[in-house]
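Crash report, auto-generated. Payload:
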Amino acid sequence: MRCAKVRRLLSAYMDERVSGGARLAIGLHLSGCRDCGRHYAELRRQRLALLGSPRLGVPPEFSAAWRSRLHSQDSSACTGGIRLAGLSVALPAAACLMAAVLGAVFLVPRMLHKGVLAPRGPAAFSRGRAPGSGALAEEPNTAGRYGRSSKLTLSPRAGVPTTAAGTPPRSDAPPGGAAKSAPAMDGRMPEPARAADENEAGFTWRVLLVGLGEDPEVSLAALRAAGYTGEIPGKLSKEAPLAVREGLSLAEARALAGRLERGGCLVALAPMPDGEGGIGGEP
Amino acid sequence: MDEQALIRSCREGDKAAFEELLGCYEGLVFNLVHRYLGNSPEAADIAQEAMLRLYRRLGEFQGRSAFKTWVYRVVTNVCLDHLRRGGQPQVSLDELAERGVMPESRAAAADPEEALEESELRAHLRSLMAGLGPDHRMVLVLRDMEGLAYEEIAAIVGCSLGTVKSRLARAREALRRLFLASPASTGWVERRLRA
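Recovered output after restart:
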């Protein structure tokens, strides 16, 4: 095993997170390579120092302060009241959404037919049907971060409005809000988006690409091999990830994430916004 | 009353049950916040905010993970929110201890000189951690300070095991490089290797 590979695996080796064969090979390498041995010793020393960090005693004033503030809170906050409150917001929101859907389904085609909503010229459309072909294909490409629109569109097939960027993130999205700005996959995947199949946790998942590896070519190859055929933004980050696949079961999402990680991609799994929460959580 | 019973009582609006439940975790919350943020002036406020966030979000806990994991997750989110608003960790835990918030326990070193060196190293590493990004700092705190398993970290952070593994490797390597680039490291590695 070469030094570079050994050094990449030293952290996992230290935590006994490498396979038996790799562990043996790394051990052999470390016993014969002075530089890698030193590198490993430095990592171990660093870890031991951090592990020995003292735990602080809780100051009585801290304890008293949060208890005092707790008593000034509305007691319904941690009960079903929070769900009722959420419901009271959700119901009008759902009604508005339904009205918007009905309006879009029934009014927009009529307006198009009557020429009230004349589609723009071909140059204004990034893709989709030709203007005047019946259904509103897509908003003009705003050439934003992902180079494609994330506005409200009408599905060419069903005429059903969908939001390309998905619904707002769940309240229990993982730290970092990786799902907040995930672009949609629209029609770029070779397979149509799967119907939501619930996994054991009760919701479906999306696989987000938050960065490419040290060798972007390898990462891009892994991405293509995983079936992603859309364009890849120049800048990826946890705040601006790329949704590679959506609507996957947890096992499928993990398998895909594993394949991408083997290509050096930085990936994250995020529950679908409209699913049930997995481990609880909060915004 | 066991934890599940306490959670049920909390959901029924029993604040005494919540006090009892969160009383068991206040040490974890207080320490975790200080480990993420150091003793920045607002760390105590953030810890209190975390406690109240736990109270407000308890209705969303569905019991699909350990309650402790959920607590970690909520507190981590509160700290990340703070860090992304521009808050930075400022002072090491050892300095905090010197200011009167004393550690509960500290392994007694046989050699006082070694203990001092250990303490200095730890303080130095903690201050260098402020130079890491929030994601890297998070996995380092959870793994190397809190001693959590990869699986727990994945559940807290909301990512795959592979991501935890790679992020942790990068974080450790980044901290090692920061340390080696710092003047304080001069001669330290050699001394330790000789020892």
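Post-recovery validation: Chain A has a mean pLDDT of 63.
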